[in-house]
Amino acid sequence: MSTATVANPYLREAVLTASPEQLQLMLYDGAIRFTMQGREALLKKDFEAVYNALTRAQKIVLEMHAGLRPEVNPTLCERVGALYMFVYHKLVDGSAHHDVQALDDALKILRLERETWQLLCDRVATDRGGDLVASDSEPEPGTLSVEV
């Protein structure tokens, strides 16, 4: 766990007590947040902030890719893995070429995937007879810090 995570006991506790479904949702939230930060920094021509934010988003996407389990469903993992790699390359292009459209493309997919994952979380919670603590909306800037 990163220093920032340890310094925020609320976040640390949320991560340690989260279900696998909630952790995945948190990763989507972080990837979206850092991509939005990178996009905003790009519009301001703050290239150091662009690099820092998009590097964090890239690390999260790579972590999600590494978490795929092809032994469970090879076809699904192949498709989702290709989607993650597409997003990763869009993030790299956005950073390297200062391409806002590439970041918009990445955000569109991340938001769609987050929405899909939220539906899955809701379904799992219903099947378990409880509620997962998750929001249907994206996090407000600064409300979630995911260090990778």
Descriptive keywords:
single chain; 148 residues; mainly alpha; Four Helix Bundle (Hemerythrin (Met), subunit A); 75% helix
Proportion in helices: over 70%
* Outline: globular
What is the count of helical runs?
6
CATH level-two architecture: Up-down Bundle
Radius of gyration: 15 Å
Question: How many β-strands, per DSSP?
Answer: 0
Question: CATH topology, which one?
Answer: Four Helix Bundle (Hemerythrin (Met), subunit A)
The helix/strand order is HHHHHH
CATH class: Mainly Alpha
CATH H-level superfamily title: Flagellar protein FliS
Strand content: under 5%
Low-confidence stretches: 141-148
Mean residue pLDDT = 86
Secondary-structure-derived class: mainly alpha
Describe the sheet with the most strands.
Answer: none
Question: How far apart lie the N and C ends?
Answer: 8 Å
Domain count: the total is: 1
